[in-house]
Amino acid sequence: MSEFSTTTNPNVSQNMRLVGVVQVRVGGRLYAVPVSAMDFAGHQSDSSSSEKRGGFFVQGDTMGIVVDETASEQQMREQVMDGCAEAVRHLSAKILN
pTM surpassing 0.85? Predict the structure, then answer.
């Protein structure tokens, strides 16, 4: 899970654009999780880094999935799938606690 800090870099939230919503079912509840895209090139010092780009994030009471808009379609799909799995783990833990 990523923690996006828009307080340290206010341009991060401005550079994200909503591309869709995925529905995640946890127990009997259905959650709508927004999927946004952004260009990570300007937000990471080494674009060839093996550091994971995109995925699920939580910031306060807000959650979502971010994908790298410069990634291939297959990579974006994988980022969304990974983000959904992480969202399920996060929401499951939240419900159980």
Answer: no
Nearest CA among 70, 66, 50 for reference residue 58: 66
68: closest CA among 59, 83, 58, 79?
Answer: 79
Report which of 39, 46, 30 is spatially closest to residue 84, judged by C-alpha positions. Answer: 30
Q: Is 46 exposed, middle or buried (0-12, 13-18, 19+ CB in 10 A)?
A: exposed
Whole-angstrom distance, CA of residue 67 vs CA of residue 20: 11
Query: Looking at the predicted structure, is the pLDDT value of residue 59 above 90?
Result: no
3-state SS class at 28: coil
